[in-house]
Design a protein that fits this description.
The protein is of the alpha/beta class. Helix content is about 40%, strand content about 20%. It is built from 9 helices and 14 strands. The strands form 4 sheets. The protein has a 6-stranded parallel sheet, sandwiched between helices. Strands 7-10-11 form a 3-stranded antiparallel sheet, covered by helices on one side. Strands 12-13-14 form a 3-stranded antiparallel sheet. Bound molecules: adenosine-5-diphosphoribose.
Length: about 300
Protein backbone atom coordinates (compact mmCIF):
# COMPACT_ATOMS: atom_id res chain seq x y z
CA UNK A 1 0.00 0.00 0.00
CA UNK A 2 1.16 3.50 -0.74
CA UNK A 3 2.17 5.87 2.01
CA UNK A 4 -0.67 8.08 3.22
CA UNK A 5 -0.67 11.81 2.47
CA UNK A 6 -1.60 14.39 5.07
CA UNK A 7 -2.42 17.94 3.97
CA UNK A 8 -2.02 20.59 6.66
CA UNK A 9 -3.63 23.90 5.72
CA UNK A 10 -1.97 26.56 7.86
CA UNK A 11 1.63 26.18 8.95
CA UNK A 12 1.51 28.29 12.10
CA UNK A 13 1.74 27.15 15.71
CA UNK A 14 -0.73 24.27 15.49
CA UNK A 15 0.20 23.42 11.90
CA UNK A 16 3.88 23.01 12.75
CA UNK A 17 3.08 20.74 15.69
CA UNK A 18 0.70 18.69 13.55
CA UNK A 19 3.51 18.11 11.05
CA UNK A 20 5.92 17.05 13.80
CA UNK A 21 3.51 14.61 15.45
CA UNK A 22 2.40 13.14 12.12
CA UNK A 23 6.04 12.34 11.29
CA UNK A 24 6.80 11.01 14.77
CA UNK A 25 3.79 8.68 14.50
CA UNK A 26 4.74 7.71 10.91
CA UNK A 27 1.20 8.50 9.79
CA UNK A 28 2.27 9.56 6.31
CA UNK A 29 4.04 12.21 4.25
CA UNK A 30 3.00 15.74 5.13
CA UNK A 31 2.21 18.68 2.85
CA UNK A 32 2.47 21.82 5.01
CA UNK A 33 0.56 24.55 3.14
CA UNK A 34 0.36 28.26 3.87
CA UNK A 35 -0.08 31.56 2.02
CA UNK A 36 2.85 32.99 -0.01
CA UNK A 37 3.69 35.45 2.80
CA UNK A 38 4.47 32.43 4.99
CA UNK A 39 6.46 30.47 2.40
CA UNK A 40 9.70 30.70 4.37
CA UNK A 41 7.90 29.63 7.52
CA UNK A 42 6.53 26.38 6.05
CA UNK A 43 9.68 25.57 4.07
CA UNK A 44 11.72 26.17 7.22
CA UNK A 45 9.50 24.01 9.43
CA UNK A 46 9.57 21.25 6.81
CA UNK A 47 13.36 21.28 6.59
CA UNK A 48 13.76 21.46 10.36
CA UNK A 49 11.45 18.47 10.93
CA UNK A 50 13.05 16.47 8.08
CA UNK A 51 16.42 17.04 9.69
CA UNK A 52 15.24 15.60 13.01
CA UNK A 53 13.95 12.47 11.27
CA UNK A 54 17.47 11.01 11.23
CA UNK A 55 17.72 11.16 15.01
CA UNK A 56 15.01 8.58 15.62
CA UNK A 57 14.77 7.21 12.09
CA UNK A 58 11.41 8.53 10.89
CA UNK A 59 10.59 7.63 7.29
CA UNK A 60 7.89 10.21 6.63
CA UNK A 61 8.75 13.58 5.14
CA UNK A 62 7.37 17.11 5.31
CA UNK A 63 7.16 19.46 2.32
CA UNK A 64 6.42 23.15 2.76
CA UNK A 65 4.31 24.61 -0.03
CA UNK A 66 2.14 27.54 -1.10
CA UNK A 67 0.65 25.70 -4.08
CA UNK A 68 -2.73 24.01 -3.66
CA UNK A 69 -1.80 21.51 -6.40
CA UNK A 70 0.62 19.94 -3.89
CA UNK A 71 -2.30 19.29 -1.52
CA UNK A 72 -4.18 17.26 -4.16
CA UNK A 73 -4.51 13.58 -3.34
CA UNK A 74 -4.36 14.08 0.45
CA UNK A 75 -6.07 11.33 2.42
CA UNK A 76 -6.58 13.63 5.39
CA UNK A 77 -6.61 17.42 5.57
CA UNK A 78 -6.38 19.35 8.84
CA UNK A 79 -7.27 23.05 8.68
CA UNK A 80 -5.62 25.49 11.08
CA UNK A 81 -5.64 28.44 8.67
CA UNK A 82 -6.91 31.42 10.60
CA UNK A 83 -6.17 33.93 13.28
CA UNK A 84 -5.94 32.85 16.93
CA UNK A 85 -7.40 34.74 19.90
CA UNK A 86 -5.69 37.50 21.86
CA UNK A 87 -6.44 38.15 25.55
CA UNK A 88 -10.00 39.42 26.09
CA UNK A 89 -11.34 37.99 22.81
CA UNK A 90 -13.99 35.32 22.50
CA UNK A 91 -13.77 32.71 19.74
CA UNK A 92 -16.78 34.42 18.12
CA UNK A 93 -14.72 37.60 17.71
CA UNK A 94 -12.69 35.68 15.10
CA UNK A 95 -15.71 34.95 12.91
CA UNK A 96 -15.39 37.63 10.23
CA UNK A 97 -11.68 37.32 9.63
CA UNK A 98 -11.55 33.52 9.80
CA UNK A 99 -14.66 33.08 7.64
CA UNK A 100 -12.90 35.00 4.87
CA UNK A 101 -9.98 32.58 5.15
CA UNK A 102 -12.30 29.56 5.29
CA UNK A 103 -14.05 30.61 2.06
CA UNK A 104 -10.71 30.47 0.29
CA UNK A 105 -9.63 27.20 1.94
CA UNK A 106 -12.96 25.39 1.43
CA UNK A 107 -13.16 26.38 -2.25
CA UNK A 108 -9.65 25.05 -2.80
CA UNK A 109 -10.42 21.78 -1.01
CA UNK A 110 -13.47 21.37 -3.24
CA UNK A 111 -11.28 21.89 -6.30
CA UNK A 112 -8.12 20.03 -5.30
CA UNK A 113 -8.96 17.42 -2.65
CA UNK A 114 -12.66 16.53 -2.78
CA UNK A 115 -11.98 12.96 -1.56
CA UNK A 116 -10.15 13.87 1.65
CA UNK A 117 -11.36 13.41 5.22
CA UNK A 118 -11.23 16.99 6.48
CA UNK A 119 -10.78 18.03 10.11
CA UNK A 120 -11.28 21.70 10.94
CA UNK A 121 -9.53 23.28 13.90
CA UNK A 122 -10.03 27.00 13.09
CA UNK A 123 -12.32 29.03 15.37
CA UNK A 124 -15.10 29.74 16.05
CA UNK A 125 -15.06 25.98 15.63
CA UNK A 126 -18.70 25.01 15.13
CA UNK A 127 -19.39 27.86 12.68
CA UNK A 128 -16.20 27.34 10.69
CA UNK A 129 -16.81 23.62 10.16
CA UNK A 130 -20.38 24.46 9.07
CA UNK A 131 -19.05 26.95 6.49
CA UNK A 132 -16.41 24.45 5.38
CA UNK A 133 -18.96 21.76 4.59
CA UNK A 134 -21.40 24.11 2.85
CA UNK A 135 -18.75 25.72 0.65
CA UNK A 136 -16.71 22.59 -0.12
CA UNK A 137 -19.85 20.47 -0.63
CA UNK A 138 -17.93 17.46 0.68
CA UNK A 139 -20.12 14.63 1.98
CA UNK A 140 -21.18 15.20 5.59
CA UNK A 141 -19.38 12.10 6.88
CA UNK A 142 -16.06 13.42 5.53
CA UNK A 143 -16.12 16.74 7.42
CA UNK A 144 -15.62 17.17 11.19
CA UNK A 145 -14.52 19.78 13.67
CA UNK A 146 -11.92 19.16 16.36
CA UNK A 147 -12.92 20.51 19.76
CA UNK A 148 -14.32 17.71 21.90
CA UNK A 149 -11.10 15.70 22.06
CA UNK A 150 -9.26 18.78 23.33
CA UNK A 151 -11.98 19.85 25.77
CA UNK A 152 -12.25 16.28 27.08
CA UNK A 153 -8.49 16.01 27.38
CA UNK A 154 -8.39 19.20 29.45
CA UNK A 155 -11.17 17.88 31.67
CA UNK A 156 -9.41 14.53 32.17
CA UNK A 157 -6.16 16.29 33.06
CA UNK A 158 -7.84 18.40 35.76
CA UNK A 159 -9.56 15.28 37.16
CA UNK A 160 -6.29 13.32 37.30
CA UNK A 161 -4.54 16.29 38.93
CA UNK A 162 -7.27 16.66 41.56
CA UNK A 163 -7.11 12.96 42.43
CA UNK A 164 -3.36 12.60 42.11
CA UNK A 165 -4.06 9.53 39.98
CA UNK A 166 -3.01 8.38 36.53
CA UNK A 167 -4.73 10.10 33.65
CA UNK A 168 -4.91 6.75 31.85
CA UNK A 169 -7.85 5.55 33.89
CA UNK A 170 -9.98 8.68 33.51
CA UNK A 171 -12.87 8.16 31.07
CA UNK A 172 -14.89 11.27 30.27
CA UNK A 173 -16.89 13.08 27.62
CA UNK A 174 -17.40 16.78 26.93
CA UNK A 175 -20.37 17.51 24.67
CA UNK A 176 -21.62 20.59 22.88
CA UNK A 177 -20.15 23.64 21.19
CA UNK A 178 -16.53 24.76 21.59
CA UNK A 179 -17.41 27.68 23.84
CA UNK A 180 -17.83 28.66 27.45
CA UNK A 181 -21.05 26.67 27.80
CA UNK A 182 -19.70 23.33 26.58
CA UNK A 183 -21.03 20.41 28.64
CA UNK A 184 -18.58 18.18 30.55
CA UNK A 185 -20.67 15.11 31.48
CA UNK A 186 -19.61 14.73 35.11
CA UNK A 187 -22.19 12.03 35.81
CA UNK A 188 -20.71 9.83 33.04
CA UNK A 189 -17.08 10.28 34.13
CA UNK A 190 -15.30 7.30 35.68
CA UNK A 191 -11.82 6.72 37.09
CA UNK A 192 -10.80 3.09 36.81
CA UNK A 193 -14.48 2.24 36.53
CA UNK A 194 -15.42 4.15 39.72
CA UNK A 195 -17.87 7.06 39.25
CA UNK A 196 -16.08 10.41 39.64
CA UNK A 197 -19.02 11.72 41.68
CA UNK A 198 -17.99 9.27 44.42
CA UNK A 199 -14.38 10.45 44.39
CA UNK A 200 -14.60 14.25 44.51
CA UNK A 201 -16.91 16.62 46.41
CA UNK A 202 -19.41 18.76 44.50
CA UNK A 203 -17.46 22.02 44.83
CA UNK A 204 -14.31 20.41 43.37
CA UNK A 205 -16.33 18.98 40.50
CA UNK A 206 -17.84 22.39 39.76
CA UNK A 207 -14.42 24.03 39.78
CA UNK A 208 -13.11 21.44 37.31
CA UNK A 209 -16.08 21.99 35.00
CA UNK A 210 -15.53 25.76 35.09
CA UNK A 211 -11.79 25.50 34.42
CA UNK A 212 -12.47 23.14 31.50
CA UNK A 213 -14.99 25.54 29.96
CA UNK A 214 -12.52 28.40 30.24
CA UNK A 215 -9.57 26.19 29.29
CA UNK A 216 -8.86 27.95 26.00
CA UNK A 217 -9.02 31.43 27.56
CA UNK A 218 -6.62 30.37 30.34
CA UNK A 219 -3.99 29.55 27.71
CA UNK A 220 -4.65 32.78 25.78
CA UNK A 221 -4.15 34.68 29.04
CA UNK A 222 -0.79 33.01 29.59
CA UNK A 223 0.54 33.17 26.01
CA UNK A 224 -0.88 36.66 25.32
CA UNK A 225 0.03 36.55 21.60
CA UNK A 226 -2.01 33.51 20.59
CA UNK A 227 -3.85 30.43 21.75
CA UNK A 228 -3.06 26.83 22.69
CA UNK A 229 -1.17 24.71 20.17
CA UNK A 230 0.36 21.55 21.65
CA UNK A 231 -2.82 19.91 22.95
CA UNK A 232 -4.94 21.04 19.96
CA UNK A 233 -2.40 19.47 17.59
CA UNK A 234 -2.33 16.15 19.47
CA UNK A 235 -6.12 16.11 19.62
CA UNK A 236 -6.55 16.62 15.88
CA UNK A 237 -3.93 13.94 15.17
CA UNK A 238 -5.88 11.39 17.23
CA UNK A 239 -8.85 11.96 14.90
CA UNK A 240 -6.72 11.75 11.75
CA UNK A 241 -5.08 8.58 13.06
CA UNK A 242 -8.43 6.91 13.76
CA UNK A 243 -9.41 7.59 10.13
CA UNK A 244 -6.09 6.59 8.55
CA UNK A 245 -5.71 3.38 10.59
CA UNK A 246 -9.45 2.60 10.64
CA UNK A 247 -9.30 2.46 14.43
CA UNK A 248 -13.03 3.18 14.79
CA UNK A 249 -12.42 5.14 17.97
CA UNK A 250 -15.35 6.86 19.67
CA UNK A 251 -14.26 10.48 19.98
CA UNK A 252 -16.21 13.65 20.66
CA UNK A 253 -16.21 15.84 17.54
CA UNK A 254 -18.33 18.44 15.79
CA UNK A 255 -20.42 16.49 13.28
CA UNK A 256 -23.40 17.44 11.13
CA UNK A 257 -26.53 16.50 13.04
CA UNK A 258 -29.70 15.57 11.20
CA UNK A 259 -32.24 15.09 13.95
CA UNK A 260 -29.99 13.57 16.62
CA UNK A 261 -30.25 15.42 19.95
CA UNK A 262 -33.22 17.25 18.42
CA UNK A 263 -30.82 19.27 16.24
CA UNK A 264 -31.06 19.49 12.47
CA UNK A 265 -28.59 21.01 10.01
CA UNK A 266 -25.91 22.19 12.43
CA UNK A 267 -22.45 20.90 13.36
CA UNK A 268 -22.28 20.23 17.10
CA UNK A 269 -19.97 18.35 19.48
CA UNK A 270 -21.15 14.78 20.02
CA UNK A 271 -19.50 11.35 20.32
CA UNK A 272 -18.80 9.89 16.89
CA UNK A 273 -17.07 6.80 15.55
CA UNK A 274 -14.20 7.66 13.23
CA UNK A 275 -12.86 4.97 10.89
CA UNK A 276 -11.89 4.49 7.25
CA UNK A 277 -15.41 5.60 6.31
CA UNK A 278 -14.98 8.94 8.04
CA UNK A 279 -17.73 9.65 10.55
CA UNK A 280 -19.23 6.16 10.61
CA UNK A 281 -21.64 6.62 13.50
CA UNK A 282 -23.10 9.32 15.71
CA UNK A 283 -23.79 8.16 19.27
CA UNK A 284 -26.63 9.51 21.40
CA UNK A 285 -26.16 8.73 25.10
CA UNK A 286 -29.15 9.13 27.44
CA UNK A 287 -29.10 12.52 29.14
CA UNK A 288 -31.04 13.65 32.20
CA UNK A 289 -33.03 16.89 32.28
CA UNK A 290 -30.25 19.14 33.57
CA UNK A 291 -27.77 17.74 31.03
CA UNK A 292 -30.32 18.28 28.25
CA UNK A 293 -30.87 21.87 29.41
CA UNK A 294 -27.11 22.54 29.50
CA UNK A 295 -26.71 21.09 26.02
CA UNK A 296 -29.60 23.20 24.71
CA UNK A 297 -27.94 26.34 26.10
CA UNK A 298 -24.69 25.41 24.36
CA UNK A 299 -26.58 24.75 21.12
CA UNK A 300 -28.31 28.14 21.25
CA UNK A 301 -24.89 29.88 21.36
CA UNK A 302 -23.64 27.81 18.43
CA UNK A 303 -26.85 28.46 16.48
CA UNK A 304 -26.59 32.21 17.04
CA UNK A 305 -23.08 32.31 15.55
CA UNK A 306 -23.88 29.93 12.69
CA UNK A 307 -27.06 31.80 11.78
CA UNK A 308 -25.00 34.98 11.42
CA UNK A 309 -22.80 33.29 8.79
CA UNK A 310 -23.69 34.58 5.33
CA UNK A 311 -22.41 32.16 2.72
N1 LIG B 1 -4.61 29.62 3.61
C1 LIG B 1 -3.70 28.93 4.33
N2 LIG B 1 -3.16 29.39 5.47
C2 LIG B 1 -3.55 30.58 5.91
C3 LIG B 1 -4.51 31.36 5.22
C4 LIG B 1 -5.04 30.83 4.02
N3 LIG B 1 -5.96 31.50 3.30
N4 LIG B 1 -4.68 32.50 5.92
C5 LIG B 1 -3.88 32.44 6.99
N5 LIG B 1 -3.18 31.28 6.99
C6 LIG B 1 -2.16 30.81 7.93
C7 LIG B 1 -1.31 31.94 8.52
O1 LIG B 1 -0.36 32.42 7.58
C8 LIG B 1 -0.66 31.24 9.72
O2 LIG B 1 0.60 30.68 9.39
O3 LIG B 1 -2.72 30.19 9.08
C9 LIG B 1 -1.66 30.12 10.05
C10 LIG B 1 -2.26 30.24 11.45
O4 LIG B 1 -1.25 30.03 12.36
P1 LIG B 1 -1.18 30.79 13.78
O5 LIG B 1 -1.43 32.24 13.57
O6 LIG B 1 0.08 30.37 14.45
O7 LIG B 1 -2.46 30.21 14.56
P2 LIG B 1 -2.62 28.82 15.37
O8 LIG B 1 -2.26 29.03 16.79
O9 LIG B 1 -1.98 27.73 14.61
O10 LIG B 1 -4.23 28.66 15.34
C11 LIG B 1 -4.91 28.53 14.10
O11 LIG B 1 -6.74 27.30 15.11
O12 LIG B 1 -7.25 26.92 17.34
C12 LIG B 1 -7.53 27.69 16.21
O13 LIG B 1 -8.29 29.77 17.14
C13 LIG B 1 -7.22 29.15 16.45
O14 LIG B 1 -8.33 29.91 14.49
C14 LIG B 1 -7.06 29.64 15.05
C15 LIG B 1 -6.42 28.45 14.31
Amino acid sequence: TRKKKIGLIGGGQIGGNLALIAVQKSLGDVMLFDIPAAEGLVKGKALDINQLSAVDGYDCRVTGTTDWKDVAGSDVIIITAGVPRKPGMSREDLLDINLKIMRDVAANIKQHAPNAFVINVANPLDAMVFALQKISELPKHMVVGMAGVLDTSRFKFFVAEALGSSIRDVEALVLGGHGDDMVPLVRHTTVGGVPLTELLPQDKLEAIVKRTREGGAELVGLYKTGSAYFAPASSAISMAESFLLDRKRILPAAALLEGQYGINGYFFGVPVQIGAGGVEKILTPQLNDSEKAALEKSFQSVKKTVDSVKL
